[in-house]
Design goal:
With 451 residues, the chain is an alpha/beta fold. Helices cover 39% and strands 14% of the residues. It binds beta-D-fucopyranose (FCB).
Length: 451
């Protein structure tokens, strides 16, 4: 069995974060309000009323955080750029202080020998755009491309590859269909235009990046979908769910078409949302890389609620993270091999842009944080990744979620995903045992390749 040390010599090791989850400084240096500031302030929206107002205070402490990355020996760091820092009202009016922050961060990373991999949109839409309908409004796609041009013009001389969107599926479902995340809209299937407009935004932004000679990626949340039983009703439900979660956000990019969504009562133009030429824009000349965010597989059964063509069934007999998510490392191999089988030559090189787990970490009296569950989660998933590579999938890198414990959206500060423990009272950073483990793995992989 291949294992994580067998990964190719040019394999890139990284870690990921997102702006609203770590930066804090929400009112500083001209940043405008985002949908997350507004949503988190709503009573009952986030567990214990937590907000990202301070988060990890990374806006001020980024030199310390870059030093932590350097200590790990990372090749790359995936972070996101807060659109409302660059364009406080989403359109027009660029805020130079916002650009300056990312300029400093990029330079600090390069000085530490780390390649920056920015994500342009990780869910923190400027509130002013939400007031105009957010991603339900087609204009947001154009505003996104304009913002992309401003950022690329400033950082494109030092940043080769860019991720346009983070998890448009999760953003559509949690933000617009169920209202669990910002902007907190519960439109159920009427949320579908938010899928198309995000993808259109991707396509327009991708063209802006390509015009500047930059590489384009997207980070999709993908899951291998397993029917609960072999009963044809469960299999049919699993096919419908796979179309919604995986294919809706990947087929248009790689194949230039939407999947069959008839199980949801939708036709090819998603109820009049898709205009002629859109799919050509979305697929463009293709992606330079597909970012895959993987946490767990999904088990699907025949519908129980008349409004949806599927229901979710629990995955039994496996460990669970502190968040309650099932731990199934081989699901990552299954997912990657499944993408390779499904898309063949249309699949660009893959990078795992997120993978990790929440653990209820608490420092011991001597101050150390031992997190064996995270180490075993990471080891299992990296071995599964190596198995997928051995089966022929071109995977170029692994970015773990996350560098730091941070603001986990609707869960506030309750879920800890970091390799580094953060005391949110004092902002003290303490590398956990998993930090040392990841550092040693990266070093061992390099030593093998060099030797
Ligand atoms: C992903 C998000 C990321 C983080 C992890 C745990 O869906 O992209 O911001 O919250 O989940």
């Amino acid at each position: 069995m291949p294992n994580r040390l067998d990964l190719p010599s040019d394999f890139r090791w990284g870690a990921s974060t997102a702006a609203y989850q770590i930066e804090g400084a929400v009112d500083e240096d001209g940043r405008g309000p985002s949908v997350w500031d507004v949503f988190a302030a709503r009573p009952g929206a986030v567990r214990d009323g937590h907000t990202g107002a301070v988060a990890c205070d990374h806006y001020h402490r980024y030199p310390e955080d870059v030093a932590l990355m350097q200590g790990l020996g990372l090749d790359g760091y995936r972070f996101s750029i807060a659109w409302p820092r660059i364009r406080p009202t989403g359109a027009g009016g660029t805020n130079p202080a916002g650009l300056d922050f990312y300029d400093r961060l990029v330079d600090a990373l390069l000085e530490a020998g780390i390649t920056p991999l920015p994500t342009l949109f990780h869910w923190d839409l400027p509130q002013a755009l939400e007031d105009e309908g957010g991603w339900l409004n087609r204009d947001s796609a154009h505003r996104f491309a304009e913002y992309t041009a401003v950022v690329a013009d400033r950082l494109g001389d030092r940043v080769p590859a860019w991720i346009t969107l983070n998890e448009p599926f999760v953003h559509m479902v949690y933000g617009y269909a169920l209202g669990i995340h910002a902007p907190g809209r519960a439109l159920l299937l009427d949320a579908l235009p938010a899928a198309h407009h995000q993808l259109l935004g991707h396509g327009l932004a991708a063209a802006v990046l390509r015009e500047r000679g930059l590489q384009v990626m997207i980070a999709n949340n993908l899951t291998p979908v397993r029917p609960a039983t072999e009963d044809p009703a469960d299999v049919e439900a699993a096919t419908a769910y796979d179309a919604l979660h995986n294919r809706l956000f990947t087929d248009p990019l790689l194949l230039g078409q939407y999947p069959d969504l008839s199980a949801f009562g939708l036709d090819e133009d998603l109820g009049g949302t898709v205009r002629p030429g859109d799919l050509k824009l979305i697929s463009g000349p293709g992606l330079d890389g597909l970012g895959v965010n993987y946490y767990n597989p999904t088990r699907i059964a025949a519908p129980t609620d008349p409004g949806l063509p599927f229901s979710e069934a629990p995955i039994e007999g496996v460990p669970r993270t502190a968040f309650g998510w099932p731990v199934v490392p081989d699901g990552l191999r299954e997912l990657l091999v499944g993408l390779h089988d499904r898309y063949g030559a249309a699949l660009p090189p893959v990078t795992v842009t997120e993978n990790g787990c929440s653990v209820a970490d608490t420092p011991a009296p001597d101050g150390t944080v031992d997190d064996p569950d995270r180490i075993s989660y990471l080891a299992g998933h990296l071995d599964a990744l190596a198995a997928a590579v051995a089966q022929g999938v071109d995977v170029r890198g692994y970015f773990t979620w996350s560098l730091l414990d941070n603001y986990e959206w609707a869960e506030g500060y309750h879920q800890r995903f970091g390799l580094v423990h953060v005391d949110f009272e004092t902002q003290r950073r303490t590398p956990k045992a998993s930090y040392a483990w990841y550092r040693d793995l990266i070093a061992a992989h390099r030593a093998l390749q060099d030797g």
